[in-house]
Sequence to fold (185 residues):
Amino acid sequence: MSEDRSEAEARSSHVPREDRSEAEARSSHVPREDRSESVSSMHADFPLPDTEWEPTREFWAGAARHELLIPRCNACGAYTWYPRERCRTCRGEAFTWTVMSGRGRLFSWAVVTRAFLPQFAGKVPFVPALVALDEDPVVRLVTEIVDCEPDDLRFDMPVRVVYRPLEFEGIAARVTAPMFTIATS
Ligand SMILES: [Zn+2]
Fold:
């Protein structure tokens, strides 16, 4: 009993909270292989996303079916994006990929008129953006705004999802991605 207590004291006094919870995650539920995959690597079809990368594989599979999927915590219901091993609110470790309404608000955007990588030459001008989803505005997707005039864009305006191929010069493959356009209804 006294041994237990002194060990607990030793743990709590020397190990910072962050380190401790990470050590717990390491030792308990997350297989080593999954963790090493959290470092994405450059792949042949860059700058296309790697749709087989485990943490976002369901997201891209959903997009191919024209569904916007976001991981939702089984314990507390919080949407956690970008995918993480643990819930941002309750640190739960189990998630269900959940279909979203595809409705959101324009949080920020830019109009890109010059291609900084040769693969983007055929895309300019284009409008990369952050969209806050209606289900929880804390969830912001990196996306593109399409099918509208950049001059018409306003902060916090309603947008809705559309599905478009990501295409780049010199790359034969395409990936269907959720993009957004101004919501008229
Ligand atoms: Zn949670």
